Structure formats: structure tokens, C-alpha cells
Amino acid sequence: MRRLRRLCAHYGNTRIVFVSCSATISKPDEHMKLMFGINRVKLINEDGAPHGKKEFILWNPPYNNPNDISLGRKSSITETAGLFEYLLTRNVRIIAFCKLRKTCELLMKQLRENLLSHQRKDLLDRVMSYRGGYIPQDRRKIEKKLFNGELLGVVATNALELGMDIGTLDVVIMVGFPWSISTLWQQSGRAGRRKTDSLTLVVADQGPMDQYYVHHPSELFEKRLDDIHLQVEHSIILESHIQCAAEELPLDVGQDQVYFGSNIKKICQDYLVPINNQQLYRPHPRFRPYPSKFINIRSVTEEVYAVIDVTDGRHVVLEEIETTRAPFEIYEGAIFIHQGTTYLVEECNVDQRYAKVHLTRVDWTTVQRDYTNVDPINTLNSKYIRNTDHMVYFGEVLAANKFNLVETSVFGYYRLDKRNRIIDACDVYMDPILRQSTGMWADIPRPALPQLEELDIDPMASVHAAGSY
């Protein structure tokens, strides 16, 4: 938006007006001021959207054995599958949101099994899963079926949370509490549009956050929306935009500070090319001819692996998996789930980035045994963690003797039953997967280590758990 303002001003339009809409941002006027680089913003916060009555149910799965609560509660996936099936058989339009892709597929698998066991094959084609990784053509087909009513239900990640019209829904189920209050309201808002009543069901996991909200439900609805923190002058973000801006119109380090901040001069000197020793700069040659093609506006661009179904000689691409996910999903021997159907990974080619899978029927799943090799070597930025004396660092990392690479190796996997109990441990070898990345890290406070040991907690296991959360 700042780049657009800059271009408009160059061609004489200094009175451009922006209209920005958001339903789930705290302090939206301040957010807009910072993002657009403007000071005059008028906030209109009256909700005029049509909607009916909305009911919330917080659903805590029952204990596996009421006489022995140490055995824990039933799986949120199993509970959600039962609720989903109940509503589906009563012609209720429904969406279930999962926080993870794997949860999405496990729920879809359980739902298919439930429908088959209860003689409801007629409903198998009325529900599908939707998540990142599916090829674009398949995602468009699912969206169309959901919009025109061919589907009664969909099991999705937040890929279907916002940004597209999928028609009228009656019920939203969330498998576990979402990561944020904003997400809770975004997902809940998927049902009950156009003045119809709706229901939101939140099925709790066994984790401490979920159990806390189940027992303190008022806090869930009284909390204000999450603040969104922008760092528009962060050097890495700013460099990407400045490369694009310099292609749109040569950068003037004096005049363009109003759009890009006081750090623009240093970034131009470090990363751009001067024009005739003046204050003007053009993009670095490696970004030519179009810098925007080298910069992903939403996230870091990643190479992908193709997952190919070779069952009975077919050769069909099921989906594409990012390099960061590949080691954990398509190692040889893994059970791969697509649209609730199980496949066995028979080959993973790291050099050519593909995995071959074939249909299989098993009542177990797999989880990888892996390690990641990476070392921080150069701090580019640092800041204090809020309300503490400790710092978090951002910078360059080293793996396999190469800068800004992370190396992940899978050396085996566990086979798990439906209750996530280990059935077997298997060894496997696959070439390490290297991916480009910078890093963020924090030093563990030295006094914390003896405190963990006093509680009989393994410090290394704790660090691993914290890094994986």
C-alpha cells in the first residue's frame, strides 16, 4: 500500500482514499495507520452484517474410564467424527476446522469409517476434506461443490477459514481450541450468515489450554481480540518491498523516506544498485526483470514434492508437499492419508522431489523419528522478550557446512494404533533433506536447568518440546 501511495503521488494523485475491512482485528484503525503509513483514519465499528442467533457449545470428551481418570479422555478426533456424523445424517450443513493437516485427514478417515460401519455409503460423496497441499484444481472443485450444495460437509484447516464464499452453513465444529481468539471468531463466523441461526461446537483436546477454557468458559468470550504486531521497517521485509519499489520507479533515498522509513538509505546502499552516483537506486540485477516474481507476498517460497499414486499402474498426482513438511510425511514406510484414504509410501526421491504411494488398508498410522541439524552462526537482529531480561535472536544458520541451510534426517518411524499407542518401531534410511532458512533462537536461562532437574524433568527433552510447540 505504501508503494501504491508512492506511485500515485508521483503521477499527481496525493488524495487517494483507501477503504479497509476487518471483523477480527483489535485496534483496526491503528493497524491501518501503520500498514498504510497514514495518519488520518476514520473507524466505523458498527456491525451491519446480516446474521442470526449464534449458540456456542464447549464439548469436553468423556473419560475413557470414569473410574480411572488417569487413562485420560477420549480422542477429540473420535468425538468430532461422531458429532459430525450425527449432524450429517440429519441434513445439517457443517464444517469442521482442524489446526493441523494431519488432524484433518485423520478426522476424515474416522468419519468415512463411521459412515461405512453404519451403512451410510450414500453420504460418503457428500463430505470431503480441504487443506493446503491439495493441487489447485482439486481445491477449486471442492469449493464449487460446497458452494452449490453438492457437499453437506467439509473437514478443513484454516485454508478455508476466510477469503472465499462457500455458501450457507449451519454448524461449525472446531477440533481443539484455535490458536487465537481472532481465529475462534473467524471460524465461528463461517456459519449463520444471511440471517440464519447457527451453532459453534468446540471439542476440547486433552491439552492444558483446552481444559482451562472448558472450565473457565467466560474468559473465552470476555477476552478482547488479539493485537496484530507489524514491523513494517524490519530490514528483511523492507528490502523485499524496496526491490519491487525500485523497479516500479527509481528510489530516491531522500524523498522516499516518507514511505519506507529512515533505514531506506542503508538498505539501498547494501542491496540495490546506485544510478549515476546520485540518490537514485534501481533493483539488484538478481531480481530483474521483475522483482515481484522473486518475492512471495504471503510467505517464504518453497519447492515442493509431488505425491504420486501408483496403485494398479496409475500415475496420478494426489497433492504437493512443501520441502519443510516432506521429511515428516513421505518417508518410506509412512502411512499417507489423502481425503481420508490411506496410502503406503513406497519410495521417496529426494533429488527429483517426488514420492510414490499406493492404496492400502491398515488400522494404524505412523509418526517419524527424526533429528534436525542446524547451528546459529551469525546474529542479524535481536530484541528483548516482553517483560523479561532475556533476548531472542534472528540470524544466519549453518548445516552441512553450508550457510542458511537446515538439514533434517528421518532415521525411522513408529507405528501407532488408534489410541496413539506404539505398536512397533521401524528403522528407515532416506537422504537428508536440506532446505534454505534463516533462524530464530533464544538462550535457555542457566538457572532454569537445575530447576528442571529438581522436578525430575529432562532439560534436553524440555528444550525439544518447547521448540516443537
In short:
With 469 residues, the protein is of the alpha/beta class.
Structure description:
This protein is an alpha/beta fold and 469 residues long. It folds into three domains: 1-48, no CATH class; 54-222, Rossmann fold, CATH 3.40.50.300; 304-468, no CATH class. The chain has 14 helices and 22 strands. The strands form five sheets. The chain has a six-stranded parallel β-sheet with strand order 1-6-5-2-4-3, with helices on both faces. A five-stranded mixed β-sheet has the order 11-10-14-13-12. Strands 15, 19, 20 and 21 form a four-stranded antiparallel β-sheet that branches. A hairpin with a 2-residue loop joins strand 17 (391-399) and strand 18. Helix 3 (76-88) crosses helix 4. The chain is globular and about 75 Å long. The relative contact order is 0.09.
What's the SSE blueprint?
Layout: H1 2-10, H2 28-36, E1 54-59, H3 76-88, E2 94-98, H4 101-117, E3 127-130, H5 136-148, E4 153-156, E5 171-175, H6 181-188, E6 198-203, H7 208-215, H8 217-222, H9 235-248, E7 251-252, H10 257-260, H11 264-271, E8 273-274, E9 280-282, E10 304-309, E11 316-322, H12 326-329, E12 335-338, E13 341-349, E14 354-359, E15 365-373, E16 375-384, E17 391-399, E18 402-403, E19 405-416, E20 422-427, E21 433-436, E22 439-442, H13 448-454, H14 459-468
Parallel strand pairs: 1-6, 2-4, 2-5, 3-4, 5-6, 10-14
Antiparallel strand pairs: 7-9, 8-9, 10-11, 12-13, 13-14, 15-19, 16-17, 17-18, 17-22, 19-20, 19-21
Helix pairs in contact: 3-4, 9-11
